[in-house]
C-alpha cells in the first residue's frame, strides 16, 4: 500500500480519528477534511488514489465531493459512508460513479476490506492502461518496418481505413505480417480503447468454432455447463480479427454473413437476439476470389469481407527492407534476452539477401531470434544461423530429382520442413503455406505421428 494516498472526508471528529488510525496501520498516506469545503480545496490542489467521504455533511455534501472528484480526477476511486437512513443516497452515488459504499457503524475490518478492494481495483486499471499503452506503442505505424514501395502502399491504406467502420480483408502469403497489420489497424483507430479479440479459424475444431464465435447457453450441448459469451459479444465496441477466414465451413459462412449484414446474432441454445458493434478484420493466405469460383467460399460473404482489401507483398519482392527488418529484430531480441548484439556480419547480410524466404518476415524473425539467443559475440556470424540458410540454393534443391512422384516430393518437403523447425507443426505449416489442420491430415495420410 506504499505510495498510496487517501483523503478522509468526515465531520465527526471521533469517526475521522478512528478512520485515520485504521488506514495508517495499512501504511497508507492519509489526509483528512472536516467539511465538504475543505475537501474540495484539497482535491483541487492534490491527487488522491481514494476518497472516503461521508454523504451527509452541512453546506457541501458528500455527493458534491463525489461530483468534484469525478470532474477533476476521474480515475480516483470514491467510497461513500452512509447511515441506514441514507441508503438511497448511497445507491444514487453509485450511479454517479462511486466505487462502493459502507454502512455506519462499521468496524476496522470492514474499512480495511473495502479500502483494499478499491485500491486493488485501481491498481488493476492502472496496469491495464499501462499494458494497453505498451501495445499501442508497439503497434504504431512506424513499428511496421518497410520502406519498399509495396509496404509504403500498405501504410497508406492503413491510415486511410483505420478510423472507418469498413470491414478489412488482409491477404498475403504466410508470414508476411497480416496479424501485425490487423493489430496496427485496431490500435491506431478510434476503437483502440475497446477490446481487440482474435480467433484463428483454422486452429479450432469445426464443431466448436460456432460456439467460440457466438457463445452458448447452459445446456446448449454436452459440456455446456454455464452460459458463455462468444468472441463477437466480448469484442463489442472494438475489433474482431478472423484469422484464416477461408478455413470456416460453408454452414458457418452463412451465419457469419448474417452478423456482418445485420450486426446481430443469437447464442447457441438461445432465441434472444444480441446486437453488437464490432469492426471485422479478416485475414487469409488464399485467393478468396478463386475459392468462390471453386465453390469453396460464399461469394456474398467474400464481397462483405472484401470492402477494403489490403495485400501484403512477400519478402522476396521487398528485399530492400531486409536490412531494416534485421536491425529491428536484433534490437527487440537483444533487449528481451539481455544481449548486446550490434548487427550482422557482411557474409550474413549477403546470405539473408540471397535467400528466397519461403516463410517471409516470420521466418526471418525466427532466424534472428535464434541467432541472438545462441550468439557469443556482438556481431552475428553464419555459425549462428541454420544450415538451410547457409547452403547454396542449388544444394537445397538437390532432392528435386526427375522421376519422383509428386506425393514423394510433397512428403519429403513436409518432413524436411518439420525437421527444420524441431517438429513444431504450427511453424512448419506457416512456412509451407497450409493450415495446421491440413498438415495433420497429411501426416495421417503418410501414416506418421
Q: Overview of this structure, please?
A:
It is a single chain. With 449 residues, the chain is α/β, with parallel strands linked by helices. The chain folds into 3 domains: 129 residues, Rossmann fold; 175 residues, P-loop containing nucleotide triphosphate hydrolases (Rossmann fold, 3-Layer(aba) Sandwich), CATH 3.40.50; 130 residues, Helicase, Ruva Protein, domain 3. The protein is 48% helix and 14% strand. The protein contains 20 helices and 16 strands. The strands form 5 sheets. The protein has a 5-stranded parallel sheet, sandwiched between helices. Strands 7-10-13-6-14 form a 5-stranded parallel sheet. Strands 8-9 form a two-stranded antiparallel sheet. Strand 1, helix 1 and strand 2 form a beta-alpha-beta unit. Helix 1 crosses helix 5 and helix 2 runs parallel beside helix 3. The longest helix has 31 residues. The protein is elongated, with a radius of gyration of 29 Å. The two termini are 53 Å apart. About 2% of the residues have low confidence.
Can you tag this structure with a few keywords?
14% strand; Rossmann fold; five-stranded parallel beta sheet; elongated; 449 residues; 3 domains; alpha/beta; 20 helices; Helicase, Ruva Protein, domain 3
Amino acid at each position: 500500500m506504499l505510495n498510496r494516498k487517501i483523503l478522509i472526508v468526515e465531520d465527526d471528529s471521533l469517526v475521522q480519528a478512528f478512520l485515520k488510525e485504521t488506514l495508517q496501520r495499512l501504511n497508507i498516506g492519509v489526509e483528512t477534511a472536516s467539511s465538504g469545503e475543505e475537501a474540495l480545496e484539497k482535491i483541487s490542489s492534490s491527487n488522491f488514489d481514494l476518497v472516503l467521504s461521508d454523504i451527509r455533511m452541512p453546506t457541501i455534501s458528500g455527493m458534491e465531493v463525489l461530483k468534484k472528484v469525478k470532474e477533476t480526477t476521474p480515475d480516483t476511486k470514491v467510497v461513500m459512508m452512509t447511515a441506514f437512513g441514507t441508503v438511497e443516497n448511497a445507491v444514487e452515488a453509485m450511479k454517479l460513479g462511486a466505487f462502493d459504499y459502507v454502512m455506519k457503524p462499521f468496524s476496522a475490518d470492514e474499512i480495511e476490506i473495502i479500502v483494499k478492494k478499491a485500491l486493488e481495483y485501481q491498481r488493476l486499471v492502472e496496469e491495464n492502461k499501462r499494458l494497453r499503452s505498451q501495445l499501442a506503442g508497439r503497434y504504431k505505424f512506424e513499428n511496421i518496418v518497410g520502406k519498399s514501395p509495396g509496404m509504403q502502399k500498405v501504410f497508406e491504406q492503413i491510415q486511410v481505413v483505420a478510423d472507418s467502420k469498413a470491414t478489412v480483408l488482409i491477404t498475403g502469403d504466410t508470414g508476411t505480417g497480416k496479424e501485425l497489420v490487423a493489430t496496427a489497424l485496431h490500435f491506431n483507430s478510434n476503437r483502440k480503447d475497446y477490446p481487440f479479440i482474435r480467433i484463428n479459424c483454422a486452429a479450432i475444431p469445426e464443431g466448436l468454432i460456432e460456439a467460440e464465435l457466438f457463445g452458448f447457453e447452459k445446456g446448449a450441448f454436452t459440456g455446456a455447463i454455464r452460459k458463455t459469451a462468444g468472441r463477437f459479444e466480448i469484442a463489442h465496441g472494438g475489433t474482431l480479427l478472423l484469422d484464416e477466414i477461408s478455413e470456416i465451413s460453408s454452414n458457418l459462412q452463412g451465419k457469419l454473413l448474417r452478423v456482418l449484414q445485420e450486426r446481430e446474432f443469437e447464442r447457441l441454445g438461445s432465441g434472444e437476439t444480441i446486437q453488437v458493434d464490432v469492426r471485422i478484420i479478416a485475414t487469409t493466405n488464399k485467393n478468396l476470389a478463386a475459392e468462390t469460383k471453386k465453390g469453396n467460399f460464399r461469394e456474398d460473404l467474400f464481397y462483405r469481407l472484401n470492402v477494403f482489401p489490403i495485400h501484403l507483398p512477400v519478402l522476396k519482392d521487398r528485399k530492400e527492407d531486409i536490412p531494416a527488418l534485421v536491425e529491428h529484430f536484433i534490437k527487440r531480441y537483444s533487449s528481451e534476452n539481455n544481449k548486446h548484439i550490434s548487427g550482422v556480419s557482411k557474409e550474413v547480410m549477403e546470405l539473408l539477401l540471397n535467400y528466397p524466404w519461403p516463410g517471409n518476415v516470420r521466418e526471418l524473425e525466427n532466424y534472428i531470434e535464434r541467432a541472438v539467443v545462441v550468439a557469443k559475440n556482438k556481431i552475428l556470424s553464419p555459425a549462428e544461423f541454420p544450415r538451410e540458410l547457409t547452403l547454396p540454393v542449388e544444394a537445397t534443391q538437390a532432392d528435386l530429382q526427375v522421376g519422383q512422384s509428386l506425393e514423394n516430393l510433397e512428403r519429403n518437403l513436409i518432413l524436411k520442413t518439420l525437421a527444420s523447425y524441431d517438429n513444431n507443426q504450427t511453424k512448419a505449416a506457416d512456412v509451407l503455406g497450409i493450415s495446421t489442420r491440413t498438415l495433420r491430415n497429411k501426416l495421417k495420410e503418410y501414416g506418421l505421428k
